[in-house]
UniProtKB/TrEMBL annotation:
Its EC number is 2.7.1.-. HAMAP family: KptA. Removes the 2'-phosphate from RNA via an intermediate in which the phosphate is ADP-ribosylated by NAD followed by a presumed transesterification to release the RNA and generate ADP-ribose 1''-2''-cyclic phosphate (APPR>P). May function as an ADP-ribosylase. Belongs to the KptA/TPT1 family. The keyword Nucleus does not apply. This is Probable RNA 2'-phosphotransferase. Keywords: NAD, Transferase. SUPFAM superfamilies: ADP-ribosylation (SSF56399).
Length: 186
C-alpha cells in the first residue's frame, strides 16, 4: 500500500469520523463508533473504495493513532478531534501532570491573551505532555509558539482534564492565569 493512499484515506476518515459522517450517509453513536461495514458501504455509495485491509493499515500505521478499532475489529472511531454534534465522547478523566503544553501560532497570541485558550470548532482545547509535539502542532498555522500550562494548578482549582485514547490531553478552557510562559520556538 502506497503512503499516498494511506494519507489520503486517513484524511478521508478524519473528515467522516470527526466532522461530517452525513457526507456519506452514516451515523455515529454517542461515543463516535460506527460499524466498519457501514463505513465501507457508505464510502462506496459516494465513490470511494475502502476495504477492511486498507482501514486496518491506516489505523495501525497512523503516526498519531487518530483512529481506534473495537476489540472485535467490527467498529471504528476517531480518538479525538471531533466537531460533529453526533458525538459526545466520554474521555477518561485524569489528573494531569504538573505541566502541559499547547502549540499555537504567533498570530493567535493577541486573541489568546484576551480569552485564554478556547476549543474553536473542536470540543476541547488540545494539550500535549511535551513541548516538541506542541511545536509541531503550532507550526501548522504559522510561526509556532509553545504555551506552558500549569495543569496541576488548574486541576486543583476544579478544571477537569481528560485523556484521549491516543494520549492527547483535553480540557474545556485554559484561562490566561495558568499560561505562565510563552516561548518563541525558533
Ligand atoms: C487556537 C491535530 C485565537 C489554537 C494536532 C489553535 C492536534 C485560539 C487553533 C489537534 C484561541 C485551533 C488539535 C483564542 C485557541 N484565540 N486562537 N482564544 N484559543 N486558539 O486545529 O490544538 O492532525 O482546532 O492555538 O496535531 O491546533 O487533526 O486545534 O491554533 O493534536 O489529528 O486555535 O489537531 O491533530 O486549531 O490541534 P485546531 P490544535 P490531527
Amino acid at each position: 500500500m502506497g503512503n499516498k493512499t494511506l494519507t489520503e484515506t486517513s484524511k478521508f476518515l478524519s473528515y467522516i469520523l470527526r466532522h461530517k459522517p452525513q457526507a456519506i450517509g452514516i451515523t455515529l453513536d454517542n461515543e463516535g463508533w460506527v460499524d466498519v461495514s457501514a463505513l465501507i458501504e457508505g464510502a462506496a455509495r459516494h465513490g470511494r473504495a475502502l476495504d477492511e485491509t486498507l482501514i486496518r493499515e491506516v489505523v495501525v500505521g497512523n503516526d498519531k493513532k487518530r483512529f481506534s478499532l473495537s476489540s472485535d475489529g467490527a467498529r471504528i472511531r476517531a480518538a479525538q478531534g471531533h466537531s460533529t454534534t453526533q458525538v459526545n465522547l466520554q474521555h477518561v478523566q485524569k489528573v494531569p501532570p504538573e505541566r502541559l503544553y499547547h502549540g499555537t501560532a504567533s498570530r493567535f497570541l493577541e486573541s489568546i491573551r484576551r480569552q485564554g485558550l478556547i476549543p474553536g470548532s473542536r470540543h476541547h482545547v488540545h494539550l500535549s505532555d511535551n513541548p516538541d509535539t506542541a511545536r509541531a502542532v503550532g507550526k501548522r498555522y504559522g510561526t509556532p509558539v509553545i504555551l506552558n500550562i500549569r495543569a496541576q494548578d488548574m486541576h486543583q482549582q476544579g478544571h477537569r482534564f481528560f485523556q484521549a485514547d491516543n494520549g492527547v490531553w483535553l480540557v474545556e478552557h485554559v484561562p490566561m492565569d495558568f499560561i505562565s510562559e510563552t516561548t518563541i520556538a525558533l
